[in-house]
Design a protein that fits this description.
It is a single chain. The chain is an alpha/beta fold. The chain has one domain: Alanine racemase (TIM Barrel, Alpha-Beta Barrel). The protein has 9 helices and 8 strands. Helix 7 links the parallel strand 6 and strand 7. The radius of gyration is 19 Å and the shape is globular. Pyridoxal-5'-phosphate binds next to strand 8 and helix 9.
Amino acid sequence: MPTDTQDANGTTLAQRYADVKARIAAAAHRVGRRAEDVMLVVVSKSGTVDQIRELMQLGQVDFAENRVQQLVQRAAQVDEWRMRRIELSGHAPLVRWHMIGSLQRNKVKKAIECTRLVHSVDSLRLAEEIQSAASRRETPIEVLVEVNVAGESSKAGVAPGAAKHLVAQIETMVNVRARGLMCMAPLEGGLDAARAAFERCRELYDDVRQSGAGGARFDILSMGMSGDFEAAVECGSNLVRVGGAVIGPPQVFEDPADA
Ligand SMILES: *Cc1c(COP(=O)(O)O)cnc(C)c1O
C-alpha cells in the first residue's frame, strides 16, 4: 500500500492526517479544552478505499459519506478487507460510518444498516421513516438534527427556532435517539460568518441540553469542515467533519489507454 506517496501539493496522506489532528488539538487547547474531547470524522467522499484503509491503519475509526450508494458500497468493501485481515492475522482495525448528506426517505433502510450516526435529520417525516425502518433493531439509531443556522435557502436543515421541538419529538421515538445538532457554515462571508453561525448553533445546543428535551445522551455538536474546523472547535464543536484537508486533492486516475 502506498503509505508515503506525495500528492500534487507535495504532502502525504499520513502527513495531512497528523497535521489536521495537531490543528484540532491546538484549537481545543486555545479555549481550554482537551484534544480528546473533539472527535475527528474523516469525510472520505472524494477519497479512495485505499486511502480509507491507510487511515484505518493509522488509527482513524470514524468516516463519513454523503451519498447512501457510496456509503453502502464502501462499508461492504472495507468489511471484506477487515474479514480478510482477521483471517490472516486475528485482528483488524475498527471502522464506524457516518451519514452526512441529505437522506431520501426511500433510502433510509439501506443507509441505517451500516451507519453509526446520521448527521442530517431535518424533518419529523425523516425521523419517523428511520423509526419505522429501525423497528426490529435492538439499539436505537442515533441521529443529529441538522440546523440551517444562517437561514440560507440553498441549505438543508430545520430553522433554529424549530430544532428543540424536533429533538423533543424524536425523544418520544423508541428506535431513534437524538444525540445532538449538526450545522454548516454559510457559503458567503468567510470565517466571520462561519464563527457567527457556529456561536448560534452552540447556543441552541446549550439551550436544548439545559431544557432536557434531548434526554441524557444529547451530547454531540457536529460542526467544522476543512476550511473552518479550528473556528468550530473554538466555538464549542466536539465533532468535526474534515474531508479535503486530510484526503487531499481529488485523485487523478490514469487512463490505461494512455499507458
Ligand atoms: C463534504 C462535506 C464535509 C467535508 O468538507 P471538506 O471541505 O472537504 O472538509 C463536511 N460536512 C458535510 C455535510 C459535507 O458534505
